[in-house]
Amino acid sequence: MLADELEGPTSDFGDVPHFSIRDCMSLSVDEDGNWLSEFQTFVRKEFMEIFRASPEEVKNRNKSRSVSLHQLGIRCKFCAHVHPSKKVRRAAAYPSATVQIYQSFSMMIRDHFPKCEEVPKDKWEMFQKLKDQCNQGAADSKLYWQYAAEKQGMQDSEGGIFMDDASQRAAGMKLPFCTSVEILSDVRDHPVLLVTPDDKALVSQFYFELMSRTQRVNLLDSELRSTRKNLKVGLPGIGCRYCCEAGRLGFSRVFPTKRKVMSEKASDMYKHMQRCTLCPREVKERLTFLLPEKRTVSAADRAFFDRVWMRLNH
Q1: Which tens digit of pLDDT belongs to each residue from 162-199?
Q2: Rounded distance between C-alpha atoms, residue 54 and residue 155, angstroms
Q3: What is the pLDDT of residues 2-44, one digit of tens each?
Q4: Domain boundaries, the chain
Q5: 58, 67 Cβ separation under 8 angstroms
Q6: Is the pTM of this model over 0.85?
Q7: C-alpha distances in angstroms, 262 versus 35, 248, 303?
Q8: Bridge partners for 73 per DSSP
């Protein structure tokens, strides 16, 4: 979406169309599921939109909260059409720089969404469910927020955040977060598969289908953070093949340090593929169909993971 196509507030007095009949530019980008918690990913996509300041907005702001024409902000998409006097506080924000977007998001999570009466019931129920089980994002998630803004085409200036054709063209050239040309070439052009056709008759359909869509990866120096900070560079792991082909890192890669955690790491890979924007829908549906009701690991499955463990480490 080009900068002049952004749906901005035509005024600050409630004449923005209802979210159900207007185009909204979501805050989310495709890589969110690789780096952020499911809760953060959901809110960025379903609750928030990017907008730009209109002449009316600039005129009606007081000096202490002044904004520049076409400056970008983020807002609750559900109540954008409501008169300002009836909105819950922190319905919108104009972060001074892309690095401040995460802070504005956090304040809206705390002060706005729990009280906004315009949030649809189904969205609110999912909000509550995911918030209750919320996990922190992957290592350097705050840096990811800045990267994601730049991936959208946002750019910092003295007058706040803006977007134009040049910044959006530059955004289209950005590599995935934390990826280099060398990493991209290695994981995409030299895949090492972990499953062979002979495994099919020896393991459950679910694990065969799941692990057939993975490949061997190695822990990078840039990944030695958070829960991985004590691991060794080069440690073999399991990566989503769809993300490997695109050079994506983050939650698409798991690094089992012991044989006994292989089934747990496989479950993490299943969860990733359900969120992965590159994994085909038919693959997600098939994996869900094959997912056993009881998460017990059979003797055949354990023998299969023994073989995968050997392939990882030898």
Answers
A1: 999 999 999 999 999 989 888 888 777 778 999 999 99
A2: 18
A3: 444 454 444 444 478 999 998 899 999 999 999 998 999 999 9
A4: 3-172, 181-313
A5: yes
A6: yes
A7: 22, 22, 11
A8: 51
* 3-state SS track over the chain: CCHHHCCCCCCCCCCCCCHHHCCCEECCCCCHHHHCCHHHHHHHHHCEEEEECCHHHHHHCCHHHCCCCCCEEEEECCCCCCCHHHCCCCCEECCCCHHHHHHHHHHHHHHCCCCCCCCCHHHHHHHHHHHHCCCCCCCCHHHHHHHHHHHHCEEEECCEEEECHHHHHHHHCCCCCCCCHHHHHHHHHCCCECCCHHHHHHCCHHHHHHHCCEEEEECCHHHCCHHHCCCCCCCEEEEEHHHHHHCCCHHHEECCCCHHHHHHHHHHHHHHHHHCCCCCHHHHHHHHHHCCCCCCCCHHHHHHHHHHHHHHHC
Q: Which amino acid makes up residue 121?
A: K
Say if residue 251 is exposed, middle or buried (CB neighbours under 10 Å; 0-12, 13-18, 19+): buried
Phi, then psi, of 33 in degrees rounded to 5: -65, -15
Q: Measure the CA–CA gap between 266 and 214, rounded to whole angstroms.
A: 10
